[in-house]
Amino acid sequence: MDAPVAFRVDPAFRDDVLAGLAAPIPAVPARWFYDRRGSELFEEITRLAEYYPTRTETALLEKISGELAGLLPAGAAVVEFGSGSSAKTPIVLRAAEPAAYVPIDISGDFLRDSAEALGAGFPGLLVLPVEADFMRRIALPAEIAAMPRLGFFPGSTIGNLVARSAVDLLRAMKETLGEGSRLLIGMDRIKDVDVLLAAYDDAAGVTAAFNLNLLHRINAELDGNIPVDAFRHRAIWNDPLSRIEMHLEAVRDVAFTVAGTPFAFAAGATIHTENSHKYGYRDSRILLRAAGWGVTREWTDDREWFSILLAEAEPPRFAP
Ligand code: AVJ
């Protein structure tokens, strides 16, 4: 007879945590922040005075929505990479007036809930959620086979990825959407370091709670006994790599186990939990171009803090 299972373990989470904590530079991929509590804390972050990206991008989308309408093909399918739970999605749907909307997300429950809520506001819109990992090429629903496609990837989520992985993702998106498709992508810009640091280390400590929640999640889901108070949130600007990094730093020598595996961290040692890359004017273009996307338009706010780019999937060329 099988032993009773105390809780369901996501083997991908367990493997990433066990390998990540044992790595020479301990790190856990940022995608594991988003359990229920983590998603709530991220929502709270987007409302913080210091966290400019969400409100800057949303205002910019509103501002360009009229112009956007004229640039998009009629009867298109909007394919969003992510669940589409944000306020940005309705702005694009009102502008593009697509025939279909396809949100893609790895979390099925969350996806169906937000797709349903969104669909209610757009009667007549064909809403076709797809539960999948958009890091890989995805087969789109047959209903949109004949429609032109607009990919939508807001939030500078691309910034979580190092350049090599970002190009892999953008290439997978091109394969998913097909040649001649368009992509509307939000990318956060390089700016004053003090502004960046405040955005990732807010006065109210919400970002700290978001970062530390990863340890609570490990304890709860992977049978860990990490003393969470032995770690503190750290946000640093890595200038040569043009990114904000978030770390969890041990404030004292600490030992614990996760899923039966022992770990020890000396005071001052860190677990690297997130990268958030920031892009210069040329950086965003070269990243997109490396994956076969040609930028046709770029919009930015008055302070040039955030960019929305429209790109086209280019046909392959033989030379040079
Ligand atoms: C959701 C990846 C765009 O990098 O700004 C916010 C996540 N981390 N505060 C970002 C995040 C800390 C966010 N992204």
What is the subunit arrangement here? single chain
Report, as a whole number of angstroms, the end-to-end distance.
65 Å
Note the beta-strand portion. Answer: 15-25%
Residue-averaged pLDDT = 94
**Measured on Cα atoms, how large is the radius of gyration?**
21 Å
Q: What does the overall shape look like?
A: globular
Secondary structural class: alpha/beta
For the sheet with most strands, the description reads: 8 strands, mixed
Ligand roster: N,N,N-trimethyl-histidine
Helix content: 25-40%
Overview in brief:
This protein has helices at 11-22, 36-46, 52-71, 88-96, 108-120, 163-177, 193-199, 206-221, 281-290, and strands spanning 77-81, 100-105, 126-127, 130-131, 149-153, 182-188, 231-238, 243-250, 254-258, 261-265, 270-277, 293-300, 306-313. By secondary structure, it is an alpha/beta fold. The structure holds N,N,N-trimethyl-histidine (AVJ).
What report would you give on this structure?
With 320 residues, the protein is an alpha/beta fold. Helix content is 35%, strand content 24%. The strands form three sheets. Strands 1, 2, 3, 4, 5, 6, 12 and 13 form an eight-stranded mixed sheet that branches. Strand 5 (149-153), helix 6 and strand 6 form a beta-alpha-beta unit. N,N,N-trimethyl-histidine (AVJ) binds next to strand 11.
